[in-house]
Here is the input.
Amino acid sequence: MDSATAIRVSRILRPSELTDEDLERWRGLQSAHPELDRPFFAPEWLNILEGASHQVEVAVLADDDGDRGFFPFHRSGAVLRAPGMRLCDFQGWIGAPDLAVVPESLLRSVGARVWRFDHLLARQAAAARHGWERQGSPTADLSSGFDAYLALHRSRGARWVSQIPHHARRLERDAGSLRFEVSSMDRGVLEQLLAWKKTQRQRTHTLDPLDEAWAHRAVTACLAVDEPGFGGLLSALYAGDDLVAAHLGLRSHGTLHLWFPAYNTVHERASPGLILLYHLMRAAAERGIRRVDFGKGPEHFKTSWSTGAEEVAEGFVHRDRIGTLVNGAAYGARRWLRATGVARRLQEPKRRIFSLGRRVRGTLGPARNP
Here is the structure.
């Protein structure tokens, strides 16, 4: 039998409906395949989203021998997106590398027409076939310890290795002695971090993923989770009595994902965010973290602090030919806008339109959960 046609959807569940047997199989797949050992592939992430009133479903993938994997998704009408949407930095199905999924059949099985993705694991993008752009999502290998990681970057001539001590001395001179907390449960730290992040989004004219109430609830809920395969990690850097930088990340068994970093811009010249990152990387290695995911993006520190990259894809799958042609043209236009810089100039009008839409929805009545 052709394995490409044997994979089917046997059940569609809410995360809370997954059985103990389902969860055991899910975690076994994560353990067996290192690329799946990431917080966004953990079932706990889906439970948080469901608890925050974000609509999440899980398609159980099976063949004639039984259940073989899982495909979590958010449904918006006839369109499937990643669970958590813009909060989610890695996407895909949970299964062995040779799991022969036919995405068009998957769409028909779950009653959708389009699957849109922007952080799909590259090995799964090959199955999707319609991934129109691939990028490297920077990672840092800490499996040999922080000192080995630091020595590697020193041998490469990375400037930050020598700059961090200089920045730390400047910050101590200007604001007081430094104190780093790798794991803080202080809600005041989280509130300040999110306030800094909101100001940063406004300053850079980028869309704020936390503008939706469900997203804010989900991010806040991550801090309360501390399971073996998933947990929120809130870290803080103080100078004297003042909080100068903070970071909320997610961890799985062996991976730390950098998620929401921010700092007090009053101390920008001393790079408090990078000082915090230095201490966080060291603490992560000491806690047994083998890999740090920076997430794809243009920030210079992501490439200068990385040792490699996980390739991810952006694109779509449409279940019929006409839809593929129409969506392909739309993605082609987006690629041109990015290449010419027009997309960057449109960010501020786009942000204002989204902001106006949210205010209108708030005036007319409570918004529906996405």
Summary: The mean pLDDT is 88. The chain has two domains: 3-137+311-362, 139-310. The two ends are 40 Å apart (CA to CA).
